[in-house]
Amino acid sequence: MDQIQLVGEEDPVLERYFKGHKAAIASLDFSPNGKQLATASWDTFLMLWNFKPHARAYRYVGHKDVVTSVQFSPHGNLLASASRDRTVRLWIPDKRGKFSEFKAHTAPVRSVDFSADGQFLATASEDKSIKVWSMYRQRFLYSLYRHTHWVRCAKFSPDGRLIVSCSEDKTIKIWDTTNKQCVNNFSDSVGFANFVDFNPSGTCIASAGSDQTVKVWDVRVNKLLQHYQVHSGGVNCISFHPSGNYLITASSDGTLKILDLLEGRLIYTLQGHTGPVFTVSFSKGGELFASGGADTQVLLWKTNFDELPSKGLNKRNLKRLHFDSPPHLLDIYPRTPHPHEEKVETVEINPKLEVIDLQISTPPVVDILSFDSTTTTETSGRTLPDKGEEACGYFLNPSLLSPECSPTTTKKKTEDMSDLPCESQRSIPHAVTDALEHIMEQLNVLTQISPQGLWRHLTDCEKEPCENLESSYDLLKENHVKNHLVSFSNIVLCVTFPVFIRHLFSLKAIALFTSCQI
């Protein structure tokens, strides 16, 4: 029987569950203000969760395949998503669901990442390329080609001068954004990296390996600083704490691990998910972190361990190193794989053992149906919104906006529309929905009937519905009804579906429907 350890005040605590997705969670990200969480899922949807009590969640509908990555812009005014449908979308994170679509990749897109100033977006794809886009001009800038297999992830350095990428060709490459050249290359003979990212200072990168390892490299001297072997399954994602002192990992073994980079050891093992964990991320302030995986749940955790006073932290580290300055990654020893399994200092936390006061959030979900907006391709250049769309403040860096398009103005307009019904609530008439559902039910029945039985059933029907059909068509033609789709659904509803099929077989009904411009 496993030994149960008591969780202290400085240990991570699971605060809330979020339920709403119908398939695995592939990616998540906190808003810059820490009040919202965006998640991307295999169910093809994005969801936006609000941490306020009883707040509604928003589901963004538009991608046609698995959504692989999601990220807020640094100012929080945009939400970027990547999908296996080969597109990248920029969403407005509100109830209207406006978006701008980028089409340039020729294969599924695996990741999106904003530069720290919000002016650029990097996308990585299974077409073996990384593409960089201008957010101000809304256009494609350039591609980076050197990988020989699918690119899993691409991230900007904090200063924006470098991009790190990892690929299934078992390499990690560092790119210079000025000359668009590969300036460094780390290779591995065992496995490939699923995820890679810079630490907050930009001096190191960490990789999540398919070979169950986590590695930390110094990009200044091209050295492997740390090599952790703490998981029993592939590592899918990592996230640096904003202080740079901690690294959290998510693995297919169903656990999260928290590593103390200053001491070079594993300090926490977190259990809470059922099945593989695919994504994890700290909030921008580090006080929270969230995780998601194959169990379709989003877990929100309170960090706690980062609240140790800095003096106490430095005092603890001075026992291990010299007294000249606080330790940093170049001072970490040993630099070989760490066997952590038998470390008694490691704390294992299983929130399923104590969930008395846990908040399980299944908020009401509002579907946001996307509609056509600006589309940018690799060769299209600049695409501007229509004058009547009032979109000037949406897809641009707020620091570059004119006064009438400032974030304050945009925020005020959003608040003014908070009481209006969302686009999805008035986009599809109920009559159309009911008609389509009725047609699908009848089709399911008809597929079970033989052709002879179908014809016999149709010829036994009465002739009156045909007269209703003709008179309804005459009324439609005479009054010039504007909403043809709704009118047609009413015609379909006025006759039984088998009779409708029968008259499709007749030349007269065929003439009717071919002459009706719907």
From TrEMBL:
SUPFAM superfamilies, sorted: WD40 repeat-like
UniProt keyword terms in alphabetical order: Cell projection, Cilium biogenesis/degradation, Coiled coil, Cytoplasm, Cytoskeleton, Phosphoprotein, Repeat, WD repeat
Compartments, as annotated in UniProt: Cytoplasm, Cytoskeleton, Cilium basal body; Cytoplasm, Cytoskeleton, Microtubule organizing center, Centrosome, Centriole; Cytoplasm, Cytoskeleton, Spindle pole
UniProt KW Transmembrane keyword: no
GO BP term, example: microtubule-based process
Annotated WD repeat ranges: 18-59, 60-91, 102-143, 144-185, 196-227, 228-269, 270-302
Top-rank taxon, per record: Eukaryota
GO cellular component, as recorded: centriole; ciliary basal body; spindle pole
Keyword Signal set for record: no
InterPro entries membership: WD40/YVTN_repeat-like_dom_sf, WD40_PAC1, WD40_repeat_CS, WD40_repeat_dom_sf, WD40_rpt, WDR55/POC1
Record's subunit section: Interacts with POC1A. Interacts with FAM161A. Interacts with CEP44; the interaction is direct and recruits POC1B to centriolar microtubules. Forms a microtubule-associated complex with POC5, CETN2 and FAM161A. Interacts with CCDC15.
Family (UniProt): Belongs to the WD repeat POC1 family.
Role of this protein: Plays an important role in centriole assembly and/or stability and ciliogenesis. Involved in early steps of centriole duplication, as well as in the later steps of centriole length control. Acts in concert with POC1A to ensure centriole integrity and proper mitotic spindle formation. Required for primary cilia formation, ciliary length and also cell proliferation. Required for retinal integrity. Acts as a positive regulator of centriole elongation.
Protein name as it appears in the record: POC1 centriolar protein homolog B
Record organism: Piliocolobus tephrosceles (Ugandan red Colobus)
